Amino acid sequence: MNRYESLEGRIDAVVIGASAGGIEALTQLLPQLPASSKLTVLVVLHVPRDRPSLLVDIFRPRCRLHVAESQDKDPIQPGTVYFAPPDYHLMVDIGPQIALSADELVNFSRPSIDVLFESAADLYQRRVLGIVLSGGNHDGAAGLQAIVRAGGLAVVQSPDQAAVDIMPRAAIAAGSVDYVLPLDQIAELLAAL
After folding, report:
1. What is the tally of structural domains in the chain?
2. Residues 131-184 pLDDT 10s
3. CATH code: domain of residue 58
4. Which residue numbers are catalytic?
5. Domain of 141?
6. Pick from 42, 44, 4, 13: which is nearest to 152 by CA?
């Protein structure tokens, strides 16, 4: 029995936020999700707002789950990894469905990790798990605390292992988190879900 087995069946959605160093971290995590997973995974990675994203092209061949760029009003399907498109905030709405917004930047970012995490906390409450990975600003710290307040689980990449440790350290400093783990243990946790 692995140490995360007690989480099996508890989580419906995983929300992940990353910035600098995030592609490398996601490359270690997302391919570990089994094809049989019924999780919904929503990802905000800070990307340039003025260029098309290549994230679906990068991750589709590596992942066993379906990988898609989020489209406004699309129903959220289990067993799918959704990436935020450039220059839009990604949120989840009643349905559940995708909601995209061109509202103001949050933490100098659009998409913003906090915006995704806060909407996921509102909709999924205790059935959401938030993960903050490598990055160079404070985006994700407030959103992760919204997940904690809603009864969800909060996971942060070990700062000493992150390519850029500012985002993980800010998430830890903001309040309580359930796990601070290296990437291989985050992958193990995700596989157990």
Report:
1. 1
2. 999 999 999 999 999 999 999 999 999 999 999 999 999 999 999 999 999 999
3. 3.40.50.180
4. 19, 46, 139
5. 5-192
6. 13
